[in-house]
Amino acid sequence: FNYNEHYEFGQLQGRLGFGPQAGIVSQEFRYAQLRGAPLPILWILEYFTLDGEDIRWGRNFRQAGYYCNLLMWSSFAFWILSILLFTTAIASACFLLGITGLLQ
Fold it and tell me: Which residues contact 75 (CB under 8 A, 6 or more apart)?
């Protein structure tokens, strides 16, 4: 089966619900429902709607992605800094390498 579907997952969350002030994902989900999209596609879109019909999955997924991105970039910065410190101060570099492991 080949589903030729494209949905926009923008950064604008908008208001709750599915009206004209709602977020892009919620509007795309409602449009796919009205159009009669296949059920597997609707299941995936429903996970990313922001508090649509008292389902809070999308909010939790977005927050988890935000914090994962934040922690991975900060651990990358600590890793680069620890590599630079290995040439001069080994004790500080070991400390930063430990922080890198904690952040991952």
Answer: 99, 100, 103, 104
Task: Please name the helix (run of DSSP H) or strand (run of DSSP E) that holds residue 44, with its range, or none.
Answer: helix 39-48
Whether pLDDT at 13 is above 70: no
- Establish how many alpha carbons lie within 13 A of residue 30's alpha carbon, considering only the half-sphere containing its beta carbon: 14
Contact indicator for 14, 50 with CB cutoff of 8 Å: yes
According to the model, what pLDDT value does residue 98 have? 83
The three-state secondary structure class of 15 is strand
**82-96 pLDDT tens trace:** 888 888 888 887 887
- Residues facing residue 14 across a β-bridge: 22
Q: Are 26 and 52 in contact (CB under 8 A)?
A: yes
Determine which helix (DSSP H) or strand (DSSP E) holds 96, and give its type and residue range. helix 90-103
